Task: inverse folding
């Protein structure tokens, strides 16, 4: 929760300090950074699953560093691409991509704690990481560093957070790992070697979700003018709140999803709780809408009546995230194809028909709703089938 609140504060203050002319660039670069966090999110889920299944911290850390090196190489290649697509400077594009390798390491350490059910230590790391990312960025904005300066400062904070997270994870799990110089330790390390391929499978699932949740912030700079693009970007803060608010649900239930005997019940519980929290988030956005111009400025008043719709978008995506997490937990990652199709449909409809803030968010909500309904139906059906197969009385 601390990390999420800090992130929302950063965006609100950035909207106020950069104004409607400059906030769109910052929001779009944040969307790119979110997409760059896809490998990190996949890393945490895979590491947590492998730890549940008995992999050692040594084995998963070796895999983490291999993946971080791969991510760093891809980030370098993407810098000029991002600069051209978003019409931003190379320095700004590099700032958005610069934190990606450190995020992989940070998320891997979080996955070790999550898979071991060390939720108190995990909460400490999450709060620390969110603060370390946001506080330097706020200082950079306050000192006039602009979007690029804020993102570089945040990247430096993430590097520091990854170092501290590693120390916390090692001290927390030290008693659980077998000594590497014993016969049992060497045998365990060999038997539980973790490859990169499971991470790549999980990456395409997380990539589909993050792309679907962020592509509107990229398209908006193509189809709207600078002022309306910034207004739309501010509205997506409500989307992010509704999307990330119930993040703890997936974090806590994910280890149970990865256990065959508890998977079906955990999936149903997760989707039910996420739906309930989504309803509360939409109602909260509708009630709090009149306060938006007070925090961000009168220039953003035109979107206050749409904040409930932005929140609905985030709430639907949160349910989709829960369903896709369950797919990663039981290694049914092919289900992400539905989300990729939804992404293609959304981008096509937005580029072809959306020319106003209302039509953009309406398209995003409609596509997300249909995609989530299909994915959730498939996941729940698979969960019922798995339960029936495990319980002869139900067969």
Result:
């Amino acid at each position: 929760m601390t990390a999420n609140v800090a992130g929302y504060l950063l965006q609100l203050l950035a909207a106020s300090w950069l104004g409607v002319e400059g906030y769109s660039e910052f929001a779009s670069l944040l969307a790119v950074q979110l997409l760059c966090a896809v490998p990190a999110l996949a890393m945490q889920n895979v590491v947590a699953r492998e730890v549940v299944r008995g992999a050692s911290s040594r084995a998963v850390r070796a895999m983490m560093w291999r993946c971080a090196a791969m991510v760093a190489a891809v980030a370098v290649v993407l810098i000029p691409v991002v600069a051209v697509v978003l019409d931003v400077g190379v320095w700004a594009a590099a700032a958005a991509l610069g934190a990606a390798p450190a995020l992989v390491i940070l998320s891997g350490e979080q996955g070790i704690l999550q898979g071991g059910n060390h939720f108190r230590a995990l909460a400490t790391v999450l709060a620390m990481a969110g603060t370390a990312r946001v506080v330097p960025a706020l200082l950079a904005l306050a000192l006039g560093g602009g979007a690029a300066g804020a993102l570089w400062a945040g990247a430096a904070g993430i590097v520091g957070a990854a170092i501290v997270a590693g120390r916390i994870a090692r001290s927390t799990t030290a008693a659980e790992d077998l000594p590497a110089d014993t016969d049992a330790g060497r045998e365990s390390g060999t038997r539980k070697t973790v490859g990169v391929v499971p991470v790549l499978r999980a990456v395409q699932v997380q990539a589909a979700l993050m792309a679907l949740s962020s592509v509107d912030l990229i398209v908006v700079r193509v189809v709207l003018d600078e002022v309306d693009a910034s207004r739309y970007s501010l509205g997506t803060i409500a989307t992010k709140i509704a999307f990330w608010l119930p993040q703890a649900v997936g974090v806590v239930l994910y280890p149970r999803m990865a256990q065959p005997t508890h998977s079906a019940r955990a999936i149903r519980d997760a989707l039910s709780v996420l739906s309930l929290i989504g309803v509360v988030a939409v109602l909260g956005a509708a009630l709090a809408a009149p306060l938006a111009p007070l925090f961000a400025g009168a220039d953003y008043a035109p979107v206050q009546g749409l904040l409930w719709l932005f929140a609905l978008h985030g709430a639907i995506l949160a349910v989709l995230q829960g369903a896709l997490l369950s797919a990663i937990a039981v290694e049914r990652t092919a289900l992400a194809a539905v989300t990729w199709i939804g992404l293609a449909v959304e981008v096509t409809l937005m580029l072809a028909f959306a020319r106003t803030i209302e039509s953009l968010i309406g398209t995003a909500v409609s596509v997300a709703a249909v995609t989530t309904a299909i994915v959730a139906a498939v996941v729940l059906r698979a969960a019922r089938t798995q339960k029936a197969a495990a319980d002869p009385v139900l067969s």
About this structure: The radius of gyration is 21 Å. Confidence is low (pLDDT under 50) at residues 178-191. The CA atoms of residues 335 and 378 lie 8 Å apart. DSSP finds 16 helices and no strands in the chain.
